[in-house]
């Protein structure tokens, strides 16, 4: 059964602007990114070979996988070289300084 709850992923203070962070949310590994104060959440396992995107480097809105350098638009999850590859995005909400993520819209 899909989990439709909002689950705590991290404290907002732990993901300052211009950074990415890895979080385990429920049964998912999530990459949290802070692009100019806006938090986005992507599937944290790179579509290439499962590299940890949350430990990647964020420059502007480009998130670079630390393993082999695949790059994604951190806001949309779109891989920058292939239109056919897009990381899943999760809805995000901030509540009382905590980043909440919903794993499913189900
Ligand atoms: S696992 Fe991310 S670029 Fe290879």
From TrEMBL:
<comment type="similarity">
    <text>Belongs to the bacterial ring-hydroxylating dioxygenase ferredoxin component family.</text>
</comment>
<protein>
    <submittedName>
        <fullName>Naphthalene 1,2-dioxygenase/salicylate 5-hydroxylase systems, ferredoxin component</fullName>
    </submittedName>
</protein>
<keyword id="KW-0560">Oxidoreductase</keyword>
<dbReference type="GO" id="GO:0046872">
    <property type="term" value="F:metal ion binding"/>
</dbReference>
<dbReference type="Pfam" id="PF00355">
    <property type="entry name" value="Rieske"/>
</dbReference>
<keyword id="KW-0001">2Fe-2S</keyword>
<dbReference type="InterPro" id="IPR017941">
    <property type="entry name" value="Rieske_2Fe-2S"/>
</dbReference>
<dbReference type="GO" id="GO:0051537">
    <property type="term" value="F:2 iron, 2 sulfur cluster binding"/>
</dbReference>
<feature type="domain" description="Rieske">
    <location>
        <begin position="6"/>
        <end position="101"/>
    </location>
</feature>
<keyword id="KW-0411">Iron-sulfur</keyword>
<dbReference type="GO" id="GO:0051213">
    <property type="term" value="F:dioxygenase activity"/>
</dbReference>
<keyword id="KW-0223">Dioxygenase</keyword>
<keyword id="KW-0408">Iron</keyword>
<dbReference type="InterPro" id="IPR036922">
    <property type="entry name" value="Rieske_2Fe-2S_sf"/>
</dbReference>
<keyword id="KW-0479">Metal-binding</keyword>
């Amino acid at each position: 059964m899909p989990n439709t709850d909002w689950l705590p992923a991290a404290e907002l203070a732990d993901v300052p602007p211009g950074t990415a962070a890895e979080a385990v949310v429920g049964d998912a590994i999530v990459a949290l990114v802070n692009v100019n104060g806006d938090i986005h959440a992507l599937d944290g396992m790179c579509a290439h070979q499962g590299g940890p995107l949350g430990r990647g480097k964020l420059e502007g809105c480009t998130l670079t996988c630390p393993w082999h350098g695949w790059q994604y638009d951190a806001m949309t999850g779109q891989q920058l070289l292939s239109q056919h590859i897009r990381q899943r995005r999760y809805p995000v909400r901030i509540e009382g300084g905590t980043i909440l993520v919903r794993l499913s819209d189900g």
